[in-house]
Amino acid sequence: xxxxxxxxxxxxxxxxxxxxxxxxxxxxxxxxxxxxxxxxxxxxxxxxxxxxxxxxxxxxxxxxxxxxxxxxxxxxxxxxxxxxxxxxxxxxxxxxxxxxxxxxxxxxxxxxxxxxxxxxxxxxxxxxxxxxxxxxxxxxxxxxxxxxxxxxxxxxxxxxxxxxxxxxxxxxxxxxxxxxxxxxxxxxxxxxxxxxxxxxxxxxxxxxxxxxxxxxxxxxxxxxxxxxxxxxxxxxxxxxxxxxxxxxxxxxxxxxxxxxxxxxxxxxxxxxxxxxxxxxxxxxxxxxxxxxxxxxxxxxxxxxxxxxxxxxxxxxxxxxxxxxxxxxxxxxxxxxxxxxxxxxxxxxxxxxxxxxxxxxxxxxxxxxxxxxxxxxxxxxxxxxxxxxxxxxxxxxxxxxxxxxxxxxxxxxxxxxxxxxxxxxxxxxxxxxxxxxxxxxxxxxxxxxxxxxxxxxxxxxxxxxxxxxxxxxxxxxxxxxxxxxxxxxxxxxxxxxxxxxxxxxxxxxxxxxxxxxxxxxxxxxxxxxxxxxxxxxxxxxxxxxxxxxxxxxxxxxxxxxxxxxxxxxxxxxxxxxxxxxxxxxxxxxxxxxxxxxxxxxxxxxxxxxxxxxxxxxxxxxxxxxxxxxxxxxxxxxxxxxxxxxxxxxxxxxxxxxxxxxxxxxxxxxxxxxxxxx
Length: 676
Description:
Distance between the termini: 122 Å
Radius of gyration: 33 Å
GO molecular function: serine-type endopeptidase activity
Domain Protease Do-like PDZ: 401-635
Region (Disordered): 1-33, 219-258, 512-594, 651-676
Largest sheet: 6 strands, antiparallel, barrel
Strand content: 25-35%
Shape: globular
InterPro entries: DEGP_PDZ (IPR041517), DEGP_PDZ_sf (IPR046449), PDZ_sf (IPR036034), Peptidase_S1_PA (IPR009003)
Keywords: Hydrolase, Protease, Serine protease
Oligomer: single chain
Structural class: alpha+beta
Helix content: 10-25%
């Protein structure tokens, strides 16, 4: 059989005769014309990520290495280097490489926008920017469907970027995975590998249409069966898993390694990119995409429209609930109808006009076009009566944040307990990527709940360790304490982790003041009590038992499953009513708590009574075991240290007077005991 002839590589091919005298393109254009030898605005990026342990902040994180692309764009007279946010978050070492340069250029993350999957990098070297031609953004509008485009990127082991032909498949509202934010997205039909994320999508004129941030599967590649060491007939070689013709003749099927090439690419379109860059240029930092902070329902039902009082010809969506931290909460209420936003009428299905009225799109797209802090005019219908309000857009808070914005997790160490804030990364670290299914219900329900204040945070127990038979946490079952929400501390509702750190600091300061000046007084009191044959005073070592809230008077009435209840009241009023006659906190009708103890109430109606003196020694042992310097994270130290200093200054004189009074009473009681 005759073997087909193969052409030698381009670098080994000889030039045809007479080609040496052929003029170059620059000579044909004229002697004065110069050819731009700079590279296109796509570079290769390598990052080493130091991802912390969100489920156990005291442990060291793990290192991950990622390789992708970055795109240099020009906007507002400035040049920016944009990369996928998921590839550079928690990046300890970020380097960008150019072809022909042996040494990479160091970079750092200047702005991180997880809501739009973009990150702006800062490169200080002037040589880097002189060797690139940044892309101009296509500001004239979105590409139409089936419009051809090109994806410029570096693939694996490629010395220079290459261009791949693609087609715009979809332009719609999508959910960006890092922050679960619904923004405008674009899908391009092109096969890309994992190393080609961050590529630039350009049109025929060379203008940038968007930046690739993810890959979309064309089918279920994970369900493919391998037969004889190869991919089975039920999965395409491109990883799409598509059955071509369902057993008929397969035409155009590409065979290869499963998962090597994907069917399409998810792209951040130009409107989202310009919003990100405009936010940076206007405010100097990234603030996010504004939302109204509401949950709404369609009004396509005639019965629902009649219930809301809508008149014939009126359109809009029904407001089901409003986030209390949203600016709209001050001017609207549930069962109002949102009829227009910024002059754009809202249909009954929650869509507004798109592409000049030729198409419809979700209302989330229209709201995301504004910047944080912009003033917008809304039209509300209340029982059919229209009213116009103007408010300043913002980003409402959430009880269960999906991300931490690139910040390390906060923590508070108390004896064998490690307390942290509830977040999506915490649940993923504790229960895996299937945390929406495997997490406890009392934590998942916070996804639907709204905070009552901007600084409200859910505090959970990340770790509970028994440090020995004499430790403060001895006797508590670990699985009963782990991953429970901390509802109250000494009878006061816990608003956030910083608030809990301040409460713990104040309690420790009072305990230290009492312990340093009440030795003789407390001893006399015990002696007098023994002489009177009365019940002994509550000792610090006798409090290491689990007390059910149902046996503590009214404690079980205030603590429900999600920890929203209060002790004999709500908020500070409940904490004030829970205090005894001597000002010490108590649980229901029970005895007042000793100030040398700390009481934590969990969401499962469990009480943790911790002797503060022993808890301090256990905390030092925990810090030494994990080689951590401070019991609280760096962001909580100012509040914690201020509480320690304030508690010591306030409890110094009061503690001395209380110690003297107790000592005198103890002496008199002791005399009576001896006389009797």
